[in-house]
Specification:
Number of strands: 14
Oligomer: single chain
Helix content: 25-40%
Number of domains: 3
CATH topology of the largest domain: Rossmann fold
Shape: globular
């Protein structure tokens, strides 16, 4: 049975409908400048499909909480939960098939990324027996899947981007159907936007966004100017769930209201005289009443663990402690390397966020009684990157390897591990790693992403990929003159172990 969702009217006056089952299989991307009617479109879609499918709304501004009054959605205030607790809430949401609105309006932007990542991760990681269809609507998706670095920390950005990528790229088999809305396509990560097969393009003014919108809809570039002329609530639709050709749609009315409606003109009161205005405005202020303390943002679990690891009770003054001997330093490096080796030996370690691995690392260090100064998360990231490349603690001290590390530091954090893996293979004249091995070092299972990553590094002038006989390839590192032996890009995933 085909379930048709009424979105509004087409330019010819006929109903414009979404095939709900097809929409859940092929996902939806909505784009339009502020005031173009994106939230109105999402609200219409949610209201019309509420009787047919479970819904999850990631709401950064609290606009969709009114769905609770009319359709019974559960509003989850993210400010009341930690990352771990919110992940457990998401798992229960899927098991019990309850429609929810994740309200993020009361938390800071960086914490919004962390909490949204935890919630989406809980939806994604639930057991197979709970893989029922869920429509996951993410408003202002460019906040959670930015195309470039922002003012937030790299850790929070990567966590949110990874969760959004899982939703759009791998969520279909788990029953997750992503519906994302953004103000600008240029601000949204391409690997997230590219997974949608249905598009609703609203009013847009910037040339780059109009050109991308026209390309997605299969229109000629000269037709892109039309996006400037679209009225509020009018969209160009395309996709297997709505129309095989670009279709102009006017979104219909909604039953629930938004708390962020546009401002209405309100005439000011009759102007008072200058004396009255002075008395009203410049009167001596009344004594201030004490305000209730503002809720402090919760520290993340990695930060708390780092603080606990660094905490030392106050001790009476004692004689200065002698600096560690070279033998003690070597033993400390050996213990740290042993802990990292045990962590990376777990099958799912390459695909877990660095923050989660850091928690495991701190706990294991306490169990193994690893002394010395506490390692903060930036230092841990450097150790983790080196360990994933298969470089042992002693080998990392060599001057040749220091050159590779120096060049890696100029690259984005998420690709440094792949570069160092290639550097190690080139330094030891080993075969070029396969796509599966590179993808694992990047923390992904996508072979296509590994190939795109190699192309990106080549575009940045970091390396040169050479085609060899028999479909093999080798990699030359620019500036180091190191070259790998020819390797099979389609070969199996290789276990990366530290050199002795």
């Amino acid at each position: 049975m085909t379930i048709a969702i009424d979105i509004g009217l087409s330019a010819s006056g006929t109903p414009a409908e979404f095939d709900l089952e097809e929409l859940l299989s092929t996902r939806l991307l909505v784009q339009g400048n502020s005031g173009s009617g994106k939230s109105h479109l999402l609200r219409r879609l949610l209201e019309q499909s509420a009787p047919w499918v479970q819904q999850v709304v990631v709401d950064p501004e609290g606009d969709f909480t009114s769905l609770a009054d009319r359709f019974g959605h559960l509003v989850v205030d993210a400010a009341d939960y930690t990352d771990q607790a919110l992940q457990q809430v998401a798992e229960r949401v899927r098991r019990h098939r309850v429609s929810v609105v994740l309200n993020l309006e009361n938390v800071e932007v960086e914490q919004q990324l962390r909490l949204a990542a935890a919630f989406l991760g809980g939806l994604f990681d639930v057991d197979r027996d709970a893989w029922n269809p869920v429509m996951v609507v993410v408003d202002e998706a460019q906040l959670f899947a930015p195309a470039a670095a922002s003012e937030t920390s790299d850790e929070a950005r990567r966590a949110a981007l990874g969760a959004m990528t899982n939703l759009m790229c791998r969520g279909r088999k788990r029953g997750l159907a992503g519906v994302i809305a953004t103000q600008r396509l240029a601000k949204l990560a391409k690997n997230v936007a590219a997974e949608a097969s249905n598009f609703m393009m609203g009013r847009t003014f910037l040339d780059i966004d109009m050109a991308r919108a026209a390309d997605l809809l299969g229109m000629e570039r000269r037709q892109a100017e039309m996006f400037r002329d679209l009225e509020r609530g009018h969209f160009m639709a395309l996709g297997p769930a709505v129309s095989r050709r670009p279709l102009r749609v006017r979104v219909g009315v909604v039953e629930t209201g938004s708390r962020s409606a546009g401002p209405k003109l309100v005439p000011p009161p009759t102007q008072a005289s200058a004396a009255e205005a002075r008395e009203l405005i410049l009167v001596a202020p009344e004594p201030e009443t004490p305000r209730p303390p503002r809720r402090m943002p919760r520290a993340s679990a990695p930060d708390l663990l780092a603080q606990l690891a660094q905490h030392r009770p106050a001790l009476p003054a004692a004689e200065p402690v002698a600096p560690p001997t070279p033998e003690e330093k070597a033993e400390h490096r050996r213990k740290i390397a042993g802990v990292l080796t045990k962590i990376l030996a777990e099958p799912d370690a390459p695909f877990r966020p660095a923050s989660v691995l850091y928690q495991d690392f701190l706990v294991r260090c306490r169990i193994e009684e690893v002394g010395g100064p506490a390692i903060d998360i930036p230092a841990f990231r450097r150790l983790l990157t080196t360990a994933r490349a298969g470089i042992g603690a002693e080998a990392a001290e060599r001057s040749e390897w220091a050159q590779a590390v120096a060049r890696a530091e100029a690259l984005p954090d998420d690709v440094q591990g792949v570069f160092l893996l290639l550097a190690r293979a080139a330094l030891e004249r080993q075969p070029c790693p396969s796509d599966a091995t590179l993808a694992r070092a990047y923390g992904s299972r996508s072979l296509g992403r590994a190939r795109r990553l190699l192309a990106y590094l080549e575009e940045q002038g970091v390396l040169v990929v050479r085609a060899e006989r028999g479909g093999r390839r080798s990699v030359v590192l620019v500036g180091l003159a190191w070259e790998t032996a020819p390797g099979d890009p389609n070969g199996p995933e290789e276990a990366v172990t530290a050199a002795a």
